[in-house]
Amino acid sequence: MTTATTAAAESLYQGKTYVKEITDRNFDKLVHNSRYPVVVEFYAPWCGHCKSLAPIYKRAAQKARSYAKFYAVNCDEDINKSLCGKYGVKGFPTVKGFFVPKDGSLGNKTPVDYNGPREIPQLLEFSESRLRYSAVALKPESIDDLISQFDTKFEQNDSDAQKRSVAVLFTNKNKIPNMWKGISNGSYGKINLGVVSASKYESLAKDDLGLTEFPSIVVFKANTDGSYSKDNVSRFADEFSYDNIVAFMRTHFVGTKSADEPSNKSSENVKNSEEKKETSQEKKKQEKPKTRKEEL
């Protein structure tokens, strides 16, 4: 008989990994009350297919870390048996997605079965297939027009003193990048995120804001009277990485910390640990990893 202690020791996701082990105790908080797309693997540590999936699942979690959460539930743990039964787990591994519905409500996401190939590209496609976000595409004809859209395109706090800053990403991408979508979810209610096409509105970006390369991030800070101006801004000037961007954004948050707020702790040791575990054959199959700047 496998005890809970033994099962925990045999966990496939202990140590340095972007996959978080969760249990019946924190499942609702981390899955149903999260604004992120959440992928959950229900597994058993003795399962051969689960062991084969583990390195793939870890790499997918690493690649999606800026916009989705990858969790794992050990169904051999006594505390998780009722949870695995609740979600109809009859074989291992079972992978399900939990996505925010169209109305944006949280608390009771409908699980979606994943029946695709157990490969990184397909898992990533699944994780972003229903990615909802609060970042807004802006189409300003001038700097004044851009600022005027802050009050019409975004939700705001009632108090001018607590009015949210607006972080604007100027990018050459044709659509809102997944990383920016993810940051908007983790920063929901703390700061508003917008996106402007740098190629289409190049004059505004270069002449009015003095931007010389893209992507660039500019935060428009609210004045004491609740207004905005191009003279009260903060430009992101650090090396482009998810951790650095999150750290920069947090300096402009308003309100209290939420459970879904992204962490700005450095995770390079996790990344290096995961990459070392790849075989040379796996590396050949994968594309050259994108830098964070290329993702925006």
From TrEMBL:
One GO term describing the cellular component: endoplasmic reticulum lumen
An annotated Gene Ontology molecular function: protein-disulfide reductase activity
A Gene Ontology biological process term: response to endoplasmic reticulum stress
Region feature Disordered, mapped onto this chain: 256-296
One Pfam family of this chain: Thioredoxin
Bias-annotated ranges (Basic and acidic residues): 271-296
Superkingdom classification of source: Eukaryota
Domain Thioredoxin: start-end pairs: 1-132
Gene3D superfamilies per UniProt: Glutaredoxin
PANTHER family noted in UniProt: PROTEIN DISULFIDE-ISOMERASE A6
This protein's name: Thioredoxin domain-containing protein
The organism's taxonomic lineage, starting at the top: Eukaryota, Fungi, Fungi incertae sedis, Zoopagomycota, Kickxellomycotina
